[in-house]
């Protein structure tokens, strides 16, 4: 844990990993600008930590409100050293089961909102000539699983966007870290959206996943990630002299990503000869 107090802005701070980050930072003397759709649950922290906690209600899919909150936070707090883009939700089911609105909501929350959050913060971070942006991605940003195609697509999109920013923002001394957790003992699985099933997908891998997710308490109990331990790892990574580009968290995340990357490399190299035959 870094000994010098800093100011952090966190989205989705009312529960889960965002809440663990907020509490851990406050416990160690940092100042936190915590945002959430409903900040009611943050009130007890305000009573304890007073001026160290700044709160604002924010639905990250409301881009106009998002920009206003970011501008206000930088103005009232003078500077913000770290931004953690954490707000997200999961959507599960077969690809053809999803309705248009659900697909749009997944991308608006998990991909479009982080892009706009980064863009809203950049003018302030450039003026500071410093700052670090931590995007909470997922092991799902490096893997693929039947029954979660749209969620994976959004996370892969986030990975591509923030991967592209390292060299772009380096001249301004702004760092980027993608955090890739596996399963976490939190309320995430209680807030999942699961599509209405089509008969064709009652069996098979999608049906099996649907039946498993229908027991969110069991899914949470089987999750391996400790949000407090993950929070400490995120803080240490974001404040390190050289922050990692990617930070897998949880043994399940590390194994899943390692297997996916190894498989892709093997498949990629198998196409070496074919790739060469298509040169002009």
From TrEMBL:
Belongs to the short-chain dehydrogenases/reductases (SDR) family. Keywords: Oxidoreductase. NCBIfam families: PRK06482.1. This is SDR family oxidoreductase.
């Amino acid at each position: 844990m870094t000994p010098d107090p800093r100011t952090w802005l966190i989205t989705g701070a009312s529960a889960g990993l965002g809440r663990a980050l907020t509490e851990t930072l406050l416990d160690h003397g940092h100042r936190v600008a915590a945002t959430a759709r409903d900040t009611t649950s943050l009130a007890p922290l305000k009573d304890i930590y007073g001026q160290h906690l700044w709160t604002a209600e924010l639905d990250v899919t409301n881009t106009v409100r998002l920009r206003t909150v970011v501008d206000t936070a930088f103005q009232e707090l003078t500077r913000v050293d770290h931004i953690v883009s954490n707000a997200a939700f999961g959507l599960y089911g077969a690809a053809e089961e999803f309705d248009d609105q659900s697909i749009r909501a997944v991308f608006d929350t998990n991909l479009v909102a982080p892009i706009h959050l980064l863009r809203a913060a950049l003018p302030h971070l450039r003026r500071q000539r410093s700052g670090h942006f931590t995007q909470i991605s997922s092991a799902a940003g490096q893997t693929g699983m039947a029954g979660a195609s749209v969620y994976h697509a959004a996370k892969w999109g986030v990975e591509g966007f923030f991967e592209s920013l390292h060299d772009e923002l380096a001249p301004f001394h702004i760092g980027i870290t993608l955090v890739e957790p596996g399963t976490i003992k939190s309320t995430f699985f209680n807030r999942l959206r699961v599509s209405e099933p089509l008969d064709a997908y009652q069996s098979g891998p999608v049906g099996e996943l649907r039946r498993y997710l229908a027991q969110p308490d069991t899914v949470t109990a089987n999750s391996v990630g400790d949000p407090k331990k993950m929070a400490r790892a995120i803080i240490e990574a974001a404040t390190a002299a050289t922050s990692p580009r990617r930070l897998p968290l949880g043994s399940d995340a590390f194994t899943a990503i390692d297997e996916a990357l190894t498989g892709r490399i093997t498949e990629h190299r198998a196409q070496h000869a074919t790739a060469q035959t298509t040169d002009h």
